[in-house]
Structures are given as C-alpha cells and as structure tokens.
Amino acid sequence: MRYLLLLILILPTSLLAQRNILNAKSPEEIGQKTIDELIIGADDAPLPYAYVNERDVLFSMTVWESIDLDERVNFPLYFPADTSVVRLERRPLIHYLLTNALNNNIDTYETDILKDKTDIYDLNDRLKYRKILPGADDDPIGITRISLEAGTKKEFLILNNVDLGEFAGIDEFAFNLENEKEATDFAEFDAEMERLIFENNLLNPDDFVESEFDYADVIEYRIKGVWYFDKRQAELKYRPIAIAPYMIAPFDKYQLIDNPEHEYQPVRMFWMFYPDTRQVLFEAEAFNEVNTSKPVNFDHLINSRRFSAFIYKEDNVFQDRRLNEYIPENALMQLMESQRIKEKIRNKEQDMWSY
After folding, report:
1. Residue 275 has pLDDT above 60, yes or no
2. How does strand 128-132 pair with strand 235-247?
3. CA 56, 223, 49 angle in degrees (round to 5)?
4. Is the domain of 90 the same as that of 177?
5. 329 lies in a domain?
6. By the 8 A CB rule, do 238 and 219 touch?
7. pLDDT top residue among 30 and 255
8. 10 within some domain
9. Are residues 158 and 200 in the same domain?
10. Total number of domains constituting the chain
11. Helices (DSSP H) in the chain: which residue ranges?
12. 121 and 88 co-located in one domain
C-alpha cells in the first residue's frame, strides 16, 4: 500500500508537470503561457546575435558535428517521437523544422554550403517510399493489372488520359538494355512513369506498398558552426550556422520490416540556415528534465550547446575532408581525433592568456 501511494504521488509529477497546470481553469489552458508571461514577454524574440567585427576575431574554426539521438543527453531533441500521447505544446525538434520546410516558411538547401535550394516536391518524395507490387496471373494486382489493362506503364497512363509532357514521344521499346547508358536512361524513364501513376492516383490500395516518414525515423542531427575568439570580449564563442536532420530512409525502413539485419546509412532531409530558424525555435519548447514547469526553448538549447556531439569534419586544406576519409574503418581512432580537435580549440583559447 505504501508503494502504491508513492507511485500515485510520483505519476502526476512525471506525467503532468508543465506550464500553467496549477492555475488552469480547464484542460485547454494546460501548457499555455500564464497572464504574467504574456504581459512580460509580449514581444519576446530570440536575443539577436551581436555584430562581430572581423578585426576582433583573433582566430576562428568551422566544425561539423553529429548529434546522435540515441544518447540520453540528446533526448530533448528527439522526444516525443509519438505525438499522440502528449499535448499539442510538446513536439520534437523535427516537427518545427519539417513543418516550416513543407510550408515554405524557411528555405531549405541540399548541402551545408547553403547554395542549391531543395525543391518542395523532391522533399516530399524523400519522405515516402512506394513500390508497385508485381502481382501474378492468379492475383491481378499492381504490374500484372497494368499489363492486362494497357500493356505498359506508359500505355496505362495514356489510357487514363494523363499528359506525359516531354515523355510522350519516347518509344520505350527502343531502349537497348544491354547498353549501360541506355539502361540508365530507361530506368529514369520507367521511374518517371511510375511517379506519374502515383501522382494521378491511378492505383488501388492493393496494387502497391508504402512506407512513410514519421518523427521516430530521425536518428541524428548534423550541425555546422563556427568557434571564434572575440578579443574585444576576450572570450571563445560558438555560432551555429546550419542544421540538418538525418533520417532512416523510407526505403530502408520498408526493408527492415522483413530483414532486421538490413544495413543502411542515415539520409539527409535538408539543410537550413540556422539564423532563419531562430524565431521558430525560440517559440518551440523542449522538455526540461531539471524543472518541467519551466521548459527551455530549442533556440536556447542549441545556442548554449546543451547537447552531446561528435565532430566529424573541420575546415581544412584537403577540401574539408571528413575524419573517416583519413581514418577509415576505425571508430575508436575517429573518436580520439574528434576529441583532439576539441582540445585544439580549447588550447587556442588558453594560448591567448599565455605570455
């Protein structure tokens, strides 16, 4: 009985402790800002980055880091992966980045160079994997149904009055599949026909299988930032420049269902210029394990470096090569090299105070 009472006392704290829960007049008010917070922080915005005069920077170094979401200290960036079990005010970091990317509120880029923008249609394609089932003579679904009704995917599209655009004049039987280049061209043509079939909703649910991205599929974040020593303030500082979520690709997720031993590499979703995300992340709150009634916003969490990260690249003369390019197949030595780079940055700060 004593243990049951203790459990009852602990559970409300762990499950319900959050902003405004003590003064809420209805369940809808739980998680909302209090009147005092609204009055004091009516014009709340992230603290602007101070202007840094290049002449005040004694040294700087750009580093790329990987934030592994399997590490406990990084859990506030990952959870809640299942948003159906929490209230609306609790969402993982990927929710805010992806939602604003899909709504075109924040520009997304293909690489950390932040030059080539990501097409919104390409991004949507990365978030799902669809495969037309082969079917059989006794089970006319998928490819078999397409063959029975029209013969080929192209003819199936024409039969359903779909405009093929530039592909209308291509003869799919003219490709020589024994030629490597023509085989590649045919694969691209066939993929486009399949995309048009899905885009125009010409298949029945039994004709294909589908695997879609969900928040639990994010396994790491990669962040590009600059360490610099500001001589005016005599301080070593860090400035995040870009951030990217990496996920299990929907294709790999589908393969893992039948083959748990399937090997895969995390796939980039997009890169974002970090200053563009600051207002969104400032208004988004992460779970605070120390005091659940006072959530910390994601912008503060990242700028104050409240995460554990592994340096996988630093700017260098070798085209910014990665650690695994000059220390291949040795995870321990790569970890030690990452620590060496961190120590190098710290030592440079210490050297500023040496005589």
Report:
1. yes
2. unpaired
3. 40
4. no
5. yes
6. no
7. 255
8. no
9. yes
10. 2
11. 2-16, 35-40, 75-78, 93-102, 120-126, 143-149, 153-159, 180-199, 250-258, 274-283, 298-303, 323-326, 331-351
12. yes
Using DSSP's 3-state secondary structure scheme, residue 112 falls into coil
Going by C-alpha positions, the residue among 104, 76, 72, 62 that lies closest to residue 304 is 76
Is 38 part of a structural domain of the chain? no
The closest of 276, 246, 208 to 67, measured between CA atoms, is 246
Residue 294 lies in a domain: yes
Asked if 345 and 242 sit in the same domain, the reply is: yes
Task: Please identify, among 190, 212, 234, the residue that sits at the C-terminal boundary of a domain.
Answer: 212
pLDDT tens column, 129-186: 999 999 988 888 999 999 999 999 999 999 999 999 888 889 888 888 889 998 999 9
Contact 9, 3 (CB under 8 A): no
Q: Are residues 299 and 159 in the same domain?
A: no
Q: Which domain holds residue 152?
A: 129-212
CB contact at 8 A, 352 and 229: yes
> What pLDDT, in 10s, does the model give residues 303-334?
999 999 999 999 999 999 999 999 999 999 99
Mean pLDDT, the chain, whole residue set: 88
The answer to whether the beta carbons of residues 107 and 117 sit under 8 Å apart is yes
Structure tokens at 273: 């210029």
pLDDT of 38 = 60
Amino acid occupying residue 346? R
User: Residue 335 — left, alpha, or beta (φ > 0 → left; ψ -120 to 50 → alpha)?
Assistant: alpha
315-348: b or e for each residue (b if 16 or more CB lie within 10 Å)? eeeeeeebbeeebeeeeeebeebbeebbeebeeb
Size of the chain, expressed as the number of residues it contains:
355
Region 92-120: mean pLDDT is 96
The residue from 161, 195, 212 where one domain ends is 212
- pLDDT the model gives residue 295: 81
Q: Is 128 helix (H, G, I), strand (E, B) or coil?
A: strand
pLDDT tens-digit profile of 210-224?
A: 999 999 999 999 999
